[in-house]
Specification:
The protein is mainly beta. The chain has 1 helix and 8 strands; from the N terminus they run βαβββββββ. The chain has one domain: Sandwich (Immunoglobulin-like). A 4-stranded mixed sheet has the order 4-1-7-8, with no helix packed on it. It starts with 7 loop residues before the first strand and ends with a strand.
Length: 100
């Protein structure tokens, strides 16, 4: 990698059932800043190298409540492109935010 390579963090929020697509807005929060998202499409942000707190969730219009939140702290190296996907995994239906 070159010294001037851009360091990025990308988060994709997968749809979580039919109800999540009807009137619900996915949101990505990185280091306390919220970014509107689209179901299944990545939100890619330029970040400084280091640790970052990422969280994905959705909310219904007019609500501030975070529904199905999934978060983690992720280390991003200089010039690295880190990809995360928020999805419901397993039988318990708990959302996770995994590196891919």
């Amino acid at each position: 990698m070159t010294a001037d390579a851009q360091t990025t963090l990308s988060v994709t929020v997968e749809p979580q059932g039919l109800l999540s697509r009807l009137g619900a807005q996915p949101v990505v929060r990185v280091d306390s800043r919220e970014h509107p998202a689209r179901w299944g499409e990545p939100v890619t942000l330029a970040v400084q190298p280091g640790d970052h707190r990422a969280k994905a969730f959705y909310r219904y219009r007019g609500s501030k409540r975070e529904i199905a939140p999934a978060g983690r702290t992720i280390a991003v190296g200089a010039g690295e492109h880190v990809r995360l996907v928020a999805r419901v995994d397993g039988d318990d239906g708990a959302p996770t935010l995994r590196r891919v």
